[in-house]
Design a protein that fits this description.
about 200 residues; alpha/beta; Rossmann fold; seven-stranded mixed sheet; 9 helices; about 20% strand; globular
Length: about 200
């Protein structure tokens, strides 16, 4: 039995923190897991930036309200879900994800959660589990699934390599160059065909 494990940001929707950077005009928020492989370091950096600028959950939610799925993402996801089970495994947060999941037709999402204090101040975050993408893929395999995984960032590589097949989608040139053995795609039609061919 197969299950496809997809990253969210960069694969199905634009990067939330980049959209937030554009809305606030603060370029430092543009750094993502494509740039910084250490997720804890990246989140500490983001929380510090939010604190310094007096920004919180409300301002991020306003940026998320303007985000639409990538062109063709909903159709890709619908076509994939007609053929196999799909789970989105993301390092985003449940507080960010709900409007995006609605726009994608409510797919299954495993993600993290924010700790939010008075006035919407983000005080911390809790990961669902350590190395959440790799841990989830291994747990699914332990339940009898064969996994096919895809993503675009450093934090997707472990789940991609642990799966029977794995792909990069709209990744950076640096990540693709450092992982030449992983097939990379830019368009949904070819991406869908590759996933279905691996099932």
């Amino acid at each position: 039995m197969n299950i496809v494990c997809l990253d969210l940001e960069g694969v199905l929707v634009p990067e939330i923190w980049i959209a937030f950077s554009e809305k606030t005009g603060i370029p430092e928020f543009r750094i993502t897991t494509r740039d910084e492989p250490d997720y804890d370091k990246l989140m500490r950096y983001r929380l510090d930036l939010l604190d310094r600028h007096g920004l919180g959950l409300r301002e991020i939610e306003e940026a998320i309200d303007g985000i639409e799925p990538l062109d063709g993402a909903r159709q890709f996801l619908d076509a994939l879900r007609e053929r196999t089970q799909v789970v989105i495994i993301s390092d985003t947060f449940e507080q960010f994800a709900r409007p995006l999941m609605r726009k994608l037709g409510w797919p299954t999402l495993f993600c993290n959660t924010l700790e939010v204090g008075d006035g919407g101040k983000i005080t911390g975050y809790r990961q669902r589990c350590a190395q959440s993408k790799l841990t989830t893929v291994k747990a699914l395999q332990g339940c009898g699934f064969e996994t096919v995984a895809a993503g675009d960032s450093f934090n997707d590589l472990a789940m991609i390599r642990a799966s029977k097949a794995g792909f990069l989608f709209r990744s950076t040139d640096a990540i693709k160059a450092a992982n030449p053995d992983i097939r990379a795609f830019e368009g949904y039609d070819e991406f869908l065909a590759a996933i279905l061919g691996a099932l």
